Amino acid sequence: MLYFKSTGRFALFVGLLAGQSWCVSAIEKTQSLQLIDIVDRAVASHPLMQRAVAKLDQVKAQSRANSQPLYNPELELAYESNVDDTSMIGLSQTFDWSDKQAALKQIGSKNQRSAEAEFIGVRQSIVVDLLRKINRYQASNVAASLNSRQLDTLEEFVKIAQKRFSVGDISQIELDLALLASGELRMRSAKIQANNYNAKLQLESFFNFEKIDVPKLNIALISDHSQDSEQLLQRHPKLVQLRMASESARAEIKLSERKKTADPTFSINAGKEGKENIINLGFSMPLHIRNNFSAEVDSAIANSVAVEQEYLNNYRQVLVDVKSTKRDLELTLSAYRRWISQSQTGLEARAKLLQRLWKSGDLGTTEYLVQIQQTLDTLIAATQLKEDVLNAWFDYLAASGQIDDWLALK
Fold it and tell me: How far is it, in rounded angstroms, from Cα 133 to Cα 184?
């Protein structure tokens, strides 16, 4: 299970349901905690998270194994029945002469830190995926609601147009135009409603199709993003993972070099041959003549170079991702701010005004249709723009590896 720092819970979602303004409104603390708890439970039970936990446990176990001594003592028992019965008992121990175990311990430690960074990266990607799915569903739900209003508006418009046509207030062409607009909107509506249903299923699948009431996401979630891009990369999970892998590869060179040194074995045996007591001391040492293990050293060096270059290559890619997602966030945020300055309530009032003008005859049918469609389409587009802004924020957090800080994860 993932856990969140309690001190960061309220601060994170202080902008939930803050409304369409840039002043963060006060909200209930329970609402903040609700969203964080939902993310916590959903991510912790995700199959990919369970797999990441198992992989991390495996690496930790291997790290513990690398910390253990290389050789155990050996017990030897022997008995020979002859003219004089001979019985022996002995112990032998091979010694890690070049301290290979220290190199193995270092490798295990670096591999564990690399695995922990990989685990954090997996967790962050799952969190971002969930937040994007929540965002998509909530935006598509608003779009579907607005689309239903469009349909209702046009249905009412068509009925009024038919009545006005029957008394000769409008022409056949104007009536046909109203009917064509209504048919076109119905075709567009099918796509909008289908997208909303698909987004709903995608989100529900994250919760194993359990009904969850997720609090609304809001632009006020976006916090300061002025940090220096290169400084952020020092703690980026992917780069930490590769940096630890590079250090592990260098430790592998040490291990390979130490393997060139043979490990001696000492033994002591005691027993009786007939009535005589016997004590034997033994010593053995492998002779690295046919294989001096120099090829293993060369292989470890080459692997270290490859891992180091992989780190440098990924550093460039991650830096580009951070800068590009940050720029995308700034542009979409700026566009959303400009739209906000127009006031959504003003657009809704405009739609009602257009209808009154058309009913009174001060606005032609064609002009009314064009303007009312533009007004309602703008409202739907604004919903999409808000979704894009939040997705840009989530992408930036993922690219810069800041999801844990933002969610106050530990």
Answer: 29
- Quick one: tokens of 28? 């209930």
**Domain harbouring 315, CATH code:** 1.20.1600.10
- Within 8 A by CB and 6+ apart from 352, the residues are none
Sheet with 265-273: strands ordered across: 74-80, 86-94, 265-273, 276-284
Number of domains within the chain? 1
Examine residue 130 and state whether it is found in any structural domain, yes or no: yes
Q: Using CA atoms, how far apart are residues 87 and 277, in angstroms rounded to an integer?
A: 10
Residue 407 lies in a domain: no
| 358 within domain boundaries | yes
Measured CA distances, 28 to 21, 62, 409 (Å):
18, 46, 21
Domain hosting residue 12, numbered range = 6-401
List phi, psi (to 5°) of 346: -65, -40
Asked whether 243 and 318 are in contact (CB, 8 A), the reply is no
Sign for the CA dihedral angle at 178, 183, 184, 185 comes to: positive
Give the length of the chain.
410
What whole-number distance in Å separates Cα of residue 124 and Cα of residue 271? 64
Q: 31-89 pLDDT, tens per residue?
A: 557 777 888 888 888 899 999 999 999 999 999 999 999 999 999 998 888 777 888 89
pLDDT digits (tens, 9 = 90+) for 85-133: 888 899 999 999 999 999 999 999 999 999 999 999 999 999 999 999 9
Q: Which two tokens stand for residue 225?
A: 């993003």
Q: Which two tokens stand for residue 171?
A: 């022409």
pTM above 0.85, yes or no: no
- Residue 133 inside a domain? The answer is yes
